[in-house]
Amino acid sequence: MLAQFARRLPFFYGWIVVAVVFVTMGVGVNARTAFSLLFPPILQEFGWDRAVTAGAFSFGFMVSAFLSPVLGRMMDSRGPMIVSLIGVIATAAGLLLATLAREPWHFYATLGVLVAAGSVCLGYSCQALFLSAWFVRRRGLALSIAFAGVGVGSIVLLPLLQRIIEQSGWRAACLALGIFAALLLTPLVFLLRRRPENLGLLADGDERVTGAAGGAARPSNIVDPAWTAIEWTLARAMRTARFWWLALAFFCALFMWYAVQVHQTKYLIETGFTAHDAALALGAVSLAGVPGQIALGQLSDRIGREIVWSIGGIGFVLTYLALLALESNPSPVLLWVMVIAQGALGYGVTSVLGAVAAEIFDGPHYGSIFGTLMFAAISGGAIGPWMAGMVHDATGSYAIAWWISIGVSLMTIVGIWMAAPGKVRAVAGRIGRIRQAD
Fold first, then answer.
1. Three-state DSSP class for 49?
2. Which residue, 212, 273, 303, 438, is most buried by CB atoms nearer than 10 A?
3. What parts of the chain have a pLDDT lower than 70?
4. Which residues of 339-367 are buried (b: 16+ CB within 10 A; e: fewer)?
5. For residue 385, what is the enclosing H or E element?
């Protein structure tokens, strides 16, 4: 029935998949991001060390990291509908059960393990696994539009959650978000499929070409035929330097992302901003990320993934420099510099996260390869917030943590250029150069 519906549509069904991922990530990823808003009132209520409390977020990320290779293989065998449904159940259950928490391990099990594991099923790693297969020429644009749902979700959900926290407490916010996620996302995940071929379609909505009368074939984007001729398994990929450079780039990307995201709200409050302004800034980062992600994703289809990834890394360098300056000069101007650098530039990394791996290791075993790469990425996302909290507990300041994060942001740029996805498959805007070279 779904296949018939997809073929009768006046537009490519892949854009419905993009829309579903847009909504799914808008809720699923922000269920994890909401930890930044829950962090201050939980600290205030229980009085635990920051490293202990932030450790719930990091611990959940580590559990998610170990799950990523398993989810990659599950995506290959079962498809996105089952994986996403598991994500909805885990996320909703974690948020609802968190309302009963009284001890640190309760938060580790609920907001940590369940919400983080659920969010990884609904987030960048799992969605990029199958969405990349629906598009080739417009892969960067499609991924960036879908992932921009995180920004729109932040704009809508985070200020609302902050208002609920202020009026009714953090437990009411968890309850509301858990119910909302379950009711909205459950029916949507049944529209997802692994590849367009599952519905009798081709990537980008192309028509099937048969015989000589069919006209010219679509130009190949392959730069390194010897590399793409290999059927890449996880074991083969892990024996290449390119895999480990990409793993380094992924690790550093989520380290630089979450080191600031988890601690940003608390840091801004301590530098003199109100809780409302700090929550607004968190949402504004995602707002800035919407046009930034879409523009940079589309740009990556023309100029290459490495350049856009580098722009994202530079955006986070500027973010951390602004945070360092805010400690002594908490001005609105610096706050907005931080917001724009983080959202409009830094978040551009997500628009090419799935594309760079697919263009190097695409094939029947891509799920297990990408899942393992996301193990590296999520490990970075876990270590970053934990490191920042530990540094603050030890020194009373985030300054050293921000400087470490600047170094990590530069390392992700090095990693992506060494992995060089553009030397394996070219983006649409550079296919002409391949043909000229031939």
1. coil
2. 273
3. 61, 208-219, 432-438
4. bbbbbbbbbbbbbbbbbbbbbbbbeebbb
5. helix 366-395
143: which 2 tokens? 């991924």
| Sign of torsion over alpha carbons 169, 173, 176, 178 | negative
d(C-alpha 234, C-alpha 421), whole Å: 17
Q: Render pLDDT for 34-74 as a digit per residue (tens, 0 to 9).
A: 887 888 888 888 887 777 777 777 787 677 777 878 888 88
Which residue type, as a one-letter code, is found at position 232?
W
**How far is it, in rounded angstroms, from Cα 248 to Cα 252?**
6
Residue of 254, 290, 12, 281 lying closest to 119 (CA atoms): 254
Query: How does DSSP assign 271-286, residue by residue?
Result: TT--HHHHHHHHHHHH
Rounded Cα distance between 273 and 261, Å, is 16
Q: Which residues, 6+ apart, have CB-to-CB distance to 187 below 8 Å?
A: none
Task: Name the phi and psi angles at 309, rounded to 5.
Answer: -60, -40
Q: Which residue has the tokens 């879409």?
A: 294
Q: 203, 362 in Cβ contact below 8 A?
A: no
> Would you say 310 and 418 are in contact if contact means Cβ atoms under 8 Å apart?
no
Residue with tokens 């009411």: 172
